[in-house]
Amino acid sequence: MIRQTGKPESLRHHSPRGRAGFIAVIMAAAVVTLVQRCEAAERFPVLHPHPTLDTGSTAWMLVSTALVMFMIPGLALFYAGMVRKKNVLATMMHAYTALVVVSLQWVLLGYMLAFGKDHFGLIGWTPGDLCLVGINPHQLVAENGHYIPVTVFCMFQAMFAMITPAVIAGSLAERMKFGSFILFVLLWTTFIYDPLAHWVWGGGWLARMHVADFAGGTVVEIASGVGGLVMAILLGRRRGYPNQVLQPSSLALTLFGAGILWFGWYGFNVGSAGAADAVAGVAFFNTTIAAAAAGLAWNLAEYVHHRRASSLGLASGIVAGLVAITPACGFVAMWSAPLIGICAGVLCYLAVQLKARIGYDDSLDAFGVHGVGGFLGMLLTGVFAVAAVNGVRGLIQGDAHQLLVEFIAASATLVYVAVGTCIIGLIVKGTLGLRAPDVVEMEGLDLGIHGESAWDIGAVPEMAAVTPANS
Predict the structure, then answer these.
(1) pLDDT digit string, tens, across residues 65-122
(2) pLDDT of residue 50
(3) Residues contacting 197, CB < 8 A, separation 6+
(4) Cα 147 to Cα 51, 144, 274, 314, distances in angstroms
(5) End-to-end CA distance of the chain
(6) Predicted local distance difference test score (pLDDT) of residue 18
(7) How many CB atoms lie under 10 A from the CB of residue 182?
(8) How far, in Å, CA of 267 to CA of 284, rounded?
(9) Domains of the chain, each with CATH number or no CATH
C-alpha cells in the first residue's frame, strides 16, 4: 500500500480525473503568467542605465578618423601629379584648404545641420548645438549597438565633410581663383553637403525610406562628382583644352596618391561600420577586392581601346572601384565585390572617354570617376545586397523595392546637387568672380596667385658662395 503522507490533503480524496483537471489549471495559469511577462518585457525592455564604452570600437574609430584625414594629402598628390607643373601647388592648396575651412564650418554649424534635431526630414536644427556648445564630451553614441564617444563620431563625420569639396577641386583645377574657391567651399558645404548628410545619415527623409548607403555613395561620391561637373561647365574650358597637350607634372605622384587614397579608404569604408565587428570585416574585404578588380578592368579597357595599359589608367581604375564599392561594402556578399569593381572600371573608363566627345572640361575627371562610379555603386547596392551581411535584401534576393529606393536616393542627390551647385556657383561668380585672369592662367596659378613654385629645378642658379660681410 502506497503511503500518501507527502501529498496535500486536497489531493488525497479526489479522483484521477479531478487531479488531472487541477494540474491542467495550474499549468494554464503558469503559461498565461509567462506570456504576460514576455509581453511586458517586449514592451518595456530592460535597458542598462549607463551605456558602457566599447573601447575596442572606439580605438578603431579613432584610427578610421585619422585614415580618412590622410586621404586628403593622398588626394592632393593624386591631383597634383595630373596637372601641369605650373599649377601643382595651387591644386594641392585646394585640397588642404577644404580641410581647414570645413573643419571650422563643421564645428560652428555643420554638425548641427547634419545631425541635429530633424525638421521635416530635410535638415537638422538644434540651436543649442551651435559651436558644439550643447555637446557633452562624455556622451556616448550608439553605432550598431556599440557605444563610442560623441566627440569621435563628430570628428569621423567631419572628415567626410572635408574630403567631399576637396574631390570637387579636381574639376576646377588650373583655372579657379583661390578666394572664390574658399567662398564656394563654405557655401557648398553648408547648403549642399550638410543637408545631404542629414537626409541619409541624420534621420532625414532618405533614412526613413531605409536607403542603403554604407559610406557615402550619395553624400560624398555623387555629390562631389555632380558638383564638379556643374562648376566645370560654369568655369569653362582651360586655355588650350582640348587642342593642346596638357602635360601632367608627375604621374609618379599620382600613383603614390592613389596608394594613399586606397589605404585611407579603409577608414572611409570600414570605419563606417561604427565598430570593430564582422560587418567591418566584410567592408574591408569588399573594399580591397573591388578596387583591385576595377584597376585591372580599366587597364583592360584601355588595352582594347588603345593597345596599351597606362599607369594613370591603373590609378584611375583603383579609385573608381573604391568609389563604386563605397555605398555597397557593408551590405553585399564578398563574391559580388569583384563584379562591382569590374563594372566600375569599365563604365567609368567609358564615361571619361565621353568627356572629350561632349566637350566639357572636367579637368581631373571628378564626374567621370566619382559621379558615375557613385551612381553605379548605389544601383548595384540595390541589386547585390544580401540580408546575411547586414539585414538588407536586394534584387538578387527578390526585393526590387530596395533597388527602387537606391535609384530614388541617387537621382534625388543628383538633382539637388546640380541645382544647388549651379546657384552657389552663380553667386560666387557674381560676387568674387570664378576664373583667374588669363595672364595668371598662362603664367600658372602657383606663381600668379600664391607667388611660389612647386619645383626648384635650377631655373635660378644658387650662389656658389656668399661673400663675407667684412671683405
Answers:
(1) 999 999 999 999 999 999 999 999 999 999 999 999 999 999 999 999 999 999 999 9
(2) 63
(3) 114, 115, 157, 160, 161, 219
(4) 7, 8, 9, 39
(5) 134
(6) 52
(7) 17
(8) 9
(9) 55-450 (1.10.3430.10)
For cell 542603403, name the residue: 212
What cell numbers appear for 83 in the block? Answer: 596637372
Here the cell at position 462 is 644658387
- The string of pLDDT tens digits covering residues 43-59 is 333 334 468 999 999 99
